[in-house]
Fold:
Amino acid sequence: MFLTHLLYIFRVKRRKMADKVLPQRIRDLVPESQAYMDLLAFERKLDQTIARKRMEIQEAIKKPITPGKQKRKFSSFFKSLVIELDKELYGPDNHLVEWHRMPTTQETDGFQVKRPGDVNVKCTLLLMLDHQPPQYKLDPRLARLLGVHTQTRASIMQALWLYIKSNKLQDCHEKEYIICNRYFRQIFGCPRMRFSDIPMKLAGLLQHPDPIIINHIISVDPNDQKKTACFDIDVEVDDPLKAQMTSFLSSTTSQQEITALEMKIHETIESINQLKTQRDFMLSFSNNPQDFIQDWLKSQSRDLKLMTDTVGNPEQERKTEFYHSPWVKEAVGRYIFSKVSTLYIFPLQGTSVVGCLLNLLRLVLKRLVITFSSPLQIGRLV
Structure:
């Protein structure tokens, strides 16, 4: 589900970014537009940084909140504790001391282990941290590839997606597939795989984190000054800014303003593209009116034939011999008859019906001459 949501965000963002990019022909025409493209590139980097920070905030918010300012007890940081003493001194049944967290475990500020003895004893402490949310150790091959050793499942998926994106492993035709390079083939054992299969394949490459290992010597010498040993262990604690982070994620005021500005940018880019098309149209006419009119008439003729589903041969129609064929006279007669039959002729006062017909025929013939004039003749008139 997380990967699907991430892919959806990626597709939507990529579509929006593509809508805001100025075409190269406009950038060549207006050199000052490079400043806008620089801002667009900076916005892309800023969006990536904000998206990463949002994911980090979401991960931090998932951690349980400790009520009040009461300090956590020592045992609350660990999932299990194992103390291994010298097996030769205490035997195979008494050399291990183990503590594991249970649902009913009562937290404590420390652990005390006592064993009789009069000689120095080597002991090994194995501490397993209680990560919330759980963290996993990656397979060494995948860890070297992604640069991640131990992280949460969501962070591992994010690092994997960034690697796929940066190395262009997504299939160009089938977006739901990724093409495995030689490293992925060694790790996942397949030439290509679906995005939806990644969590299942990744499960076999995740292990429990390594425990913290502390080697210590328990000294019984009364003159030994090192009775206490201190070790620094990095643990995750609740962030005091969690309330502010939650408010930041739930706030939609800035997002609405950003959406409105993006819509305005899209409308401006669309208007620029339309103006560029109009400019090219007018510039082509001003440079060579005759060729422009001829090309325009040819284009309009093709569009008209496509709209009316008319079949014709442009190569024959552009020659004058085409209009000297025997069928032309019959076609002209049928055309005039169809025009006359669609009009209602009413004789005006002082005008005969024959006069009206003659005037109408002159008008039809005049239009007919214009209709059958070749594009070349019209170009010369212009």
